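Hello everyone,

My group is preparing for a crystallization screen and wants a predicted model to guide construct design. The compound we'll soak is zinc ion. Before spending weeks at the bench, it would help to have a computed complex in hand. I've included the protein sequence and the ligand's SMILES below. Output in structure-token form would be ideal because that's what our pipeline reads.
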Amino acid sequence: MLRIPCPWCGPRDETEFCYGGQAHVPYPADPSTVDDADWAGYLFFRDNPKGWFAERWMHRAGCQRWFNVVRHTVTYEISASYPPGTSRPDVA
Amino acid sequence: MRITVDGVQLAARPGDTLASALLRAGRRVLSQGIYTGRPRGLVSAGVEESNVFVQVLSGSGEPMVRATEIEAYDGLRVRTLAGKGLLPDEPDEARYDKTFAHTDVLVVGGGPAGLMAALAAGESGARVLLIDDQPRLGGRLLASRAIVDGLAVHDWVSSMRDRLQALPEVTVTSRTAVVGYYDHNYLVAVERRTDHLGSAAPATMARHRLWNIRAGQVVLATGAHERSIAFADNDRPGIMLAHSATAYAWRYGCRPGRRAVVFGAHDGALAAAVELADAGVEVAAVLDVRDVVGADFAAALARRGISVQTGATVSGTLADDDGVLRAVLTSAGETVAADLLAVSGGWNPAVELFSQSGGRTFWSEAAAGFVPDTAAQPTHCAGVLTGAVSLARVLSEGAGAGAEAARAAGLDVTEPATPSVEGELREEAAPAAYFCVDSAAEETVFVDLQRDATLHDIRRAVGAGLTSVEHIKRYTTIGTAADQGRGSGVLAVGVLAQLSGRSMAEIGTTTYRPPYTPISFALLAGRDRGRLADPERVTAIHDWHVEHGAVFEDVGQWKRPWFFPRPAESMDEAVRRECAAARTGVAMMDASTLGTIELQGADVGLLLDRLYTNVFSSLKIGSVRYGVMCGPDGMVIDDGTTARLAEDRWLMSTTTGNAAKILEWLEEWLQTEWPDLDVRCTSVTDQWSTVVLVGPRSRDTLEELAPELDCSVEGFPFMTVRQAAVAGIPARIMRVSFSGELAYEITVASWYALAVWEAVFAAGEITPYGTETMHVLRAEKGYPIVGQDTDGTVTPQDLGMGWIVSKKKPDFVGKRSFARADTSRSDRRQLVGVVPVDGRSRVAEGAQLVSHGAVLTQPPVAMHGHVTSSYHSVALGTPFALALLDAGASRHGEVLDAVDDGHATAVQVVSPVPYDPDGVRRDG
Ligand SMILES: [Zn+2]
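Reply:
Good plan to model first. Here are the tokens for the complex, ready for your pipeline.
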């Protein structure tokens, strides 16, 4: 079970959180201008890297706030945790 | 103390295990091979035991436990088992608890290395948790005669315990086995609190406790398990691991045999021979596979008149009439009479937890064992686990690892002095990596005693072309028994290496998985059983429903009245009566479980415009609008009504099971995409309770209860909301309908729910109804239930609700997807009604729709759709169902078969709105 640092509450057990998939996949500003292939990409396609990955979590059993985490998908090491709307920190 | 084994009473002493008591009583044959039926006896004194398992009958009972791990107590009753456990018939009434620990340093293992590690870390001021699986600290020191810091080992262990107890931040927990080592230094341990107390166990104390531990740093001092050597007829009672034999002699005070042969491949086996001799066992022969043995050990044995035969092995054994060992056959051709054959092939460092943590191991030639290599987490290994042999080295490694862990946890550390050790023989000759004595009788050369698997089985696996040890494990079942391969895993790797000519490093080990020792489901469940397994939610009116004979159904965690049968009334009869009341008179329902979210702020209208398919920002204060919500993929996720109570105050209702999910959905968009919007969302489901009043006579009832309210069609139109006193109670009344009839939803603070419910009930001949009638009424109007008639692949258009999808709004979540090729197909599954052609048969929910007359026995049978809801319709006088059907909107009139469990019912496709399609009844 991971130990996830919530930016607002501090480190907590994984069971308090829910997962939200890849981070930094914004809702397109004007979906009507997005072609079918790109829209399918937005809906259905996500990165699946072996290594560092920026992903979304929500502290469901705590502050109920969303945030982003940079986690290594092999070692599960977490190198950063930051609020939504901020850019991925330059770590790892 | 008296204990009872298979109905026979035996004596036991304080400190005994069941195994030591059995051995002292001379009981040798205690089990049999699960497939071969061959007699088996104790092979070890600890967690390595792979032969003798018993069912505990006294106390809380336990289906299958190693005899070596049961502490004897007065009144202990057990039954021996032949390889398999027996599940009891009765429920387990014992109490099981969970506890959570956070610590700077967790030390696993209370042997010499673990004690030193805990002291080194503890003296730095770190929070330290020392966990040991034995009743007493000391590990294998308990069977040792060494002098540590001038003290006998028992006294030294006591002094260490006192020093640890004097440190306020150190906790020592015995009888606790760490069974799992997971990510981010999360470990799980099982504490046995009362099993050893028998009838003296306090009734208030939990039997076992599950420890959930989050550690900053972990020190593993898990020791090692002795490895056997495979040879012909190596499974007879009387053949035992050498250091288990010495543990019986020196820790438990029971002689494991009178006349022994010792067979080994490292100096440790010779040390065991010395210990056995000094315990009064006649050591008839010492066989060592090596040509060179440690001089200290040979000399110590020589002083006792015992010579070591080098380059010698055991070629077989002989048994008496009971199958118990009586003689050992040596490679020199001798037959040596013996009732104990003490075997030691070497040490397998207990790397299980280290491996579970993600750490890698490697084969150490020097230690002749797999030892920890690189750690994957903040883990420090010490002692015998690392391949260390001498006690002095073990103690200093322990102190070093404890200090290192405390330093890594951010503390200043002064490493304690390493204690002096006297009376220990030095191991000076290298161990041999030796596993199996070749024999023509391969089917008697046992590698896994509990699985009855032999050298022959491994050779067969290799002959079948298997090379990976993982495959061979599965083919032979070696290492899959209750001991998880502790006795057989590395031995099998060694045998495979011998057979295939490959190196140990090349073959490697199988994967170690949790749990290290068995863990019961009862403990994992803890107190979350029965009524506490899942919270039960009831409305403020629940007790009234119970008193009035409601039958309940579970909707998520809610208990909702399903129907209210009168005496001797069947469900169908009750539902028919309730439906008739709602269609022709007046009926009432408790709708308090409907999810309710209050939204406040200047931008609520804007948010709803983006999340609902239709327009909400134009909604007038005091009005209500129905909306459908979709995901970005265009699929329906929820529906419900939203009322605008004030300029910046709105009340949204969601499906009963969806309330939390939709609140999270709103929050997700607000937090991650539109943080600039001025909107606040709060769940108010529990704060409000709602009574639904339905039927053509509901207006009369409401007028009587709320005399100040203008209930006329013009004064209180459909889809509006009013504030008024109902039976003197402040209420919010909404004119919405989920049945097609004139209906009112009366919402009051939950505190008043029962009062307003009883007032409404007392107002006239009003029929209470449950969820089944609600479903029939809504299905007759073709109102879908999200999650029942939809499944995440259904668009609003598929539901025939294209009218609710705004064409004017530039965007809303889901809009772009309606232009995708797949969502634009005309042959998508669409909502239809189906009625049985015979006018009588009710089809099953989930039934498949196939072509009429399709031969079901000749696959493939093309499936055109499936039934999502099915009821008996009172209004139509026939059964009626909703279904999702390929291109359903264009197939009204067609006849199909609805197939359930091989039985076909002819049905006709009809409009999903069979009742009052023009909606003339909603004004009463
Ligand atoms: Zn939080």
